[in-house]
Structure formats: C-alpha cells, structure tokens
Amino acid sequence: MSDAPLPSVLAFERGGVSVCCPVADVAEIVEEPVLGDPGYPVPLLASTLLHRGLLIPVVDPVCVFDRPASPQGDVVLIAGPGGTVGLLSDRVLGFRTPSTVAPAPWVPAGRICRRVAVIDGVGQAFLFGADGLADVPAVAAPPPATVDATDAAAGGGVMHIVFTIDGRDYAAAYPEVGRILHRQRVFRLPGAVPPVRHAVEMIGAVVPAFDLSGADGMPERGDFVVLVSPVGPLALRVDGIGRPLPLTPDAGDPAWFASRGVAAVARVDERPYAVVTGEALLRDLIGQPGSGGR
C-alpha cells in the first residue's frame, strides 16, 4: 500500500451517486449553464458547453454505470494534460479529504473512473480525475481560467479556493493550498503561547493551526485550509469553504482589509477577496519576515 498522501477532493452528487474529483484537477464550476446537443451519439457524452470561447464536451457520470444521461445540471470542469471535460452535477457537497482511495477494477475500461474514495459523511464516492480524460473526447486546451495558475500574483483569472472567516471573504490560490481538512480534530499544545496554541494532525504530522477571527479558543473540530510556507504547512481555520473561482488580482492595497495573513486583494466581478498565503501568515502572526514581505 502506498504511503503517498491522499488528495483533497471536491465531492458532489449526480443521479443519486456520490462522485468526487481531485481538487488539483478541478478547473471551475459552472452553475446553471446553457448546454448544447452534441449532434452525434458518443459513449458517455451527454452534452456540450460553450465556455470561455471553447466548446467543451460534457459527461454525465451516471453513464459510467449504464444509466441514461440527462443533459441538465451544473458542470464541474476537470482539466489535465489530456484536455478539459465537464462533469454534470446535481449538488456540490464541498471539499473533503478521503479516508481511503483505492482502485475500482469492477468499473469497465474506457469510462474515466479509475478509483473509488471513501469519505466521512459521504460514503463511497467514485473518483473522476484528469488521468481518465483520454477515455472521452476532450478539448485540447484548458479554459483560460486555469492558465498560469502556478503564479498567484501574475495574470488574471487564477483559480482560488474561497472561504469565509468571521463573515469575511478570503481566498488562496491553488498553488498555495497544500490540503483541505474537513471536521478535523483540534488539540491544544501544552505550554504554548499565542498565536501558536493549537495544532491539527495531517498525514501523521503535527501542523500549527491559526484562527484569524480573533476568538480565544478553537472548536473541538473544524475545517482548515492548509497553506504552504517556507517553514512547512500551516493550517488556517475557516468557517466555510466555497466553490473554486477564477479571481483577478486587484491593484488596491491589501492593508484596507485590516486582517493578518493577507498578501493581496483579488476580485471576481466586483466582489473582493482577501488573498492569504502561508508566507504572509508567518510574517504577520509569528513575526518571521518572508522573502517577499511588505
């Protein structure tokens, strides 16, 4: 059995079946899209989606199990070297960390799904990832929202995980997020002093946990976005995690958010988000200067 860390996933439901995708493969979620007719019968293909100038093939996950497609619902776009494909969804359950991911050899070849995950509170969820995109027609290039996502500060439309803390909107660029922890147990560090008084367990390691809400303590369990930093992972407690969004950097001064750990401001439409990084958390909470500190 491999000791490799299990991927965080986006879990959703389709036709009563639980489905999930690795967060790293999720390019975007398109809500209530206008879907087109492919015009030609193709296995697994339910419809097409015109999005950001691309005509993207859309698969109904229930077709993997020989059930008829229904060309309606939200679309989860997954992208990889093999291109981009949409997956139809009835309801997004949110970000989760599976307890187990294993091969699904009973799923016939050529049906995108390679593995199955066991997720607390969800149960068994069939995993669809970029490694299966060669099984269906896919557009040759990902949507522009995923291009240059390796640089959180450059270009527009970089994919971010968005979340709320104490009623305020925050975000972290995909490359800054090492993991997402759902309902993770929190424990107090004996003899510790603020701001590092709590920690969470992640793949056998103890990770410092921070709370930007200003509360004196932390709940027994919580949701965390784990950020990468020069000294290792840092767990940021959040109230809720939203859908991934392509955010455009804003030229405004992030200082007006008056919140620690904020490195920049980004927007989707006119809605601003405070962009946090592990380096900024180190700078503002621990007083350790980062390589790009302001």
From TrEMBL:
The residue ranges crossing the membrane are: none
Q: What's the protein called, per UniProt?
A: CheW-like domain-containing protein
- Source organism of the structure: Azospirillum oleiclasticum
Q: Name one Pfam family in it.
A: CheW
What SUPFAM superfamilies would the database entry show? CheW-like
Q: Where is the signal peptide?
A: none
Q: Residues in domain CheW-like?
A: 9-97, 161-284
Name the InterPro entries for this protein. CheW-like_dom_sf, CheW-lke_dom
